[in-house]
Amino acid sequence: MKLILLGAPGAGKGTQATFISKEFGIPQISTGDMLRAQVKAGTPLGLEAKKHMDAGGLVPDAVIIGMVKDRLTQDDCKNGYLFDGFPRTIPQAQAMKDAGVPIEFVLEIDVPDSDIIERMAGRRAHLPSGRTYHVKFNPPKVEGKDDVTGEDLVQRDDDKEETVKKRLDVYHSQTKPLVEFYGKWAAEGDAAAPKVRKIAGVGSVDDITKAVFNALK
């Protein structure tokens, strides 16, 4: 199973990625983890990436693709792999296609923006313990207070409504077009093109997981 998981921030990709990895015995590949590992190991690609990161710039696609190809040669990728959060842009998808990185499925978890804003903007956290709550779906016993310590809960900056809206704008402008990119490729009848599937990411986690596995048959 070789697949790319797409979906807006807060669409539940992380949860489903864990289930997919377990079901198919494949690693979840995140470019963030890959970058950190290569930088830590001091590989040529890692050093090149660090140079750009230290300068506050984006790591060039060529470097990322180099890391992806390197990562896919490792033993745990024998049965396949799951890309979560990559590719993010059309140039990255094109570079993967040009590099001949095999992909069988592109699965989009589709959630309306209004639901994502409600999900994320309602989150509250107890920072010292990492416990999280939701004002509507999983409220604390006492409003604004951690159940265990009684300390104040906070809303992380990332979860504030204006931040969530900005992240959704970036997703719609940069990442959502990937669905079209892969759809077009599949329509060309190229045997190497992945199958593009879309499921609704609304409902219970179990129902969404069932829909995911059905889509990957």
Automatic annotation (TrEMBL):
Residues the record lists as binding ATP: G10, A11, G12, K13, G14, T15, R123, T132, Y133, G203
Keywords: ATP-binding, Cytoplasm, Kinase, Nucleotide biosynthesis, Nucleotide-binding, Transferase
Domain of life assignment: Bacteria
EC number(s) reported in the record: 2.7.4.3
Catalytic reactions of this protein: AMP + ATP = 2 ADP
Molecular functions (GO terms): AMP kinase activity
Annotated ranges, domain Adenylate kinase active site lid: 123-158
Gene3D superfamilies xrefs: P-loop containing nucleotide triphosphate hydrolases (3.40.50.300)
Subcellular location: Cytoplasm
Sections of the chain in a coiled coil: none
Binding of AMP, residues: T31, R36, G57, L58, V59, G85, F86, P87, R88, Q92, R156, R167
EC supergroup of this enzyme: transferase
UniProt region (NMP), positions on chain: 30-59
Listed pathway(s): Purine metabolism; AMP biosynthesis via salvage pathway; AMP from ADP: step 1/1
Annotated region (LID), positions in chain: 122-159
Signal peptide: none
Quaternary data: Monomer.
Entry function: Catalyzes the reversible transfer of the terminal phosphate group between ATP and AMP. Plays an important role in cellular energy homeostasis and in adenine nucleotide metabolism.
Record NCBIfam families: adk, PRK00279.1-1, PRK00279.1-2, PRK00279.1-3, PRK14527.1
Family: Belongs to the adenylate kinase family.
Swiss-Prot/TrEMBL domain comment: Consists of three domains, a large central CORE domain and two small peripheral domains, NMPbind and LID, which undergo movements during catalysis. The LID domain closes over the site of phosphoryl transfer upon ATP binding. Assembling and dissambling the active center during each catalytic cycle provides an effective means to prevent ATP hydrolysis.
PANTHER family: NUCLEOTIDE KINASE (PTHR23359)
Protein name: Adenylate kinase
Organism expressing this protein natively: Azonexus hydrophilus
